[in-house]
């Protein structure tokens, strides 16, 4: 029987999970709706369903690793899901914030593998942020580097966390919807705006420029907090990097006194799941 880990990457809409070899190769992959909007019970049920299904494979499971969103973005907490899984299974369970796991995988086998201080930023519905220093996740008392919920504007829009003007209100998918409205575009999702920009649509290109400026403003804070060697961008929105990087760099160059780190887009597929292989080290 092959020894392997099981990694989960759970978000509000989707559960992605896989069987991962000890070297970080995904051997089997499953995707299933999370249905977080239906409440705690439903998300717990869906997580167990996926776990049961993966455990039917012919493996000797060395441990589970759950990439879980922060409490601001997920009704069921890490502690709660841990209790639910422990009632049924006795495998070692590792837990981490999804952005921390993304950053760990990047620091070990991805864009950050040659560097000491790696910051990972996942751009999606929200903004996840992780910091890995000397190949170890820095998590303070557990919730460190939640840059998505650091306010850039105390008069800004109200965030899902209740605070005004959070970074993720300026460089997440809600921002794209807001900017699309501003430029009177009917398409509002990241994918649609990406396709429009690719076709040369001037309004869509403006949306991405505004987005890049906002991102640069937020990254400026990240750089001053951690002075990283490299920042790795991930999440679906990072695919539009070519359209927002110009404005992002321009904004960062306005703000001297710190040396700019390298900024790259992740090339790893399912980095947060792959990280399951490295959690027991
Ligand atoms: Zn917030």
> How large a portion of the residues is in β-strands, by DSSP E?
15-25%
Structural class: alpha/beta
Per CATH, the class of the largest domain reads Alpha Beta
The CATH architecture designation of the largest domain is 2-Layer Sandwich
- Average pLDDT works out at 92
In CATH, the topology of the largest domain is named Nucleotidyltransferase, domain 5
Features:
single chain; 281 residues; alpha/beta; Nucleotidyltransferase, domain 5; 2 domains; 5-stranded mixed sheet; 8 helices; 10 strands; 23% strand; globular; binds zinc ion
Detailed description of the structure:
It holds the Pfam family ROK. This is Glucokinase. Strand 4, helix 2 (78-88) and strand 5 form a beta-alpha-beta unit. This protein is an alpha/beta fold. Helix 4 (173-182) runs antiparallel to helix 6 (202-226), helix 5 (190-198) crosses helix 6 and helix 6 crosses helix 7. It contains eight helices and ten strands. A five-stranded mixed β-sheet has the order 3-2-1-4-5. The protein has a five-stranded mixed β-sheet with strand order 8-7-6-9-10, covered by helices on one side. Zinc ion binds at residues 72, 149, 159, 161, 163, 166.
């Amino acid at each position: 029987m092959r020894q392997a880990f099981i990694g989960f990457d759970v978000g509000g809409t989707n559960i992605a999970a896989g069987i991962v070899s000890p070297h970080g190769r995904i051997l089997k992959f499953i995707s299933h709706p999370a249905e977080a909007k239906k409440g705690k019970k439903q998300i717990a049920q869906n997580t167990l369903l996926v776990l049961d299904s993966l455990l039917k494979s012919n493996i000797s499971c060395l441990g589970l690793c759950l990439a879980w969103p922060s409490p601001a973005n997920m009704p069921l907490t890490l502690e709660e899901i841990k209790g639910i899984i422990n009632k049924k299974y006795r495998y070692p369970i590792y837990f981490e914030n999804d952005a921390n796991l993304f950053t760990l995988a990047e620091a070990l086998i991805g864009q950050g593998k040659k560097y000491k201080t790696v910051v990972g930023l996942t751009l999606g519905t929200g903004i996840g942020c992780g910091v890995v220093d000397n190949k170890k996740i820095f998590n303070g008392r557990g919730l460190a580097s939640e840059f998505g919920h650091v306010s850039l504007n105390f008069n800004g829009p109200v965030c899902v966390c209740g605070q005004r003007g959070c970074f993720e209100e300026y460089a997440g998918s809600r921002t794209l919807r807001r900017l699309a409205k501003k430029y009177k575009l009917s398409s509002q999702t990241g994918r649609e705006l990406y396709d429009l920009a690719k076709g040369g649509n001037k309004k869509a290109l403006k949306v991405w420029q505004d987005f890049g400026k906002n991102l640069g403003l937020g990254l400026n804070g990240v750089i001053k907090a951690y002075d990283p060697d490299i920042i790795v961008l991930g999440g679906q929105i990072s695919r539009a990097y070519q359209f927002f990087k110009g404005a992002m760099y321009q904004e960062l160059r306005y703000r001297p006194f710190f040396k700019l780190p390298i900024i790259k887009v992740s090339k790893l597929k399912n980095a947060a799941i792959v990280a399951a292989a490295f959690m027991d080290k």
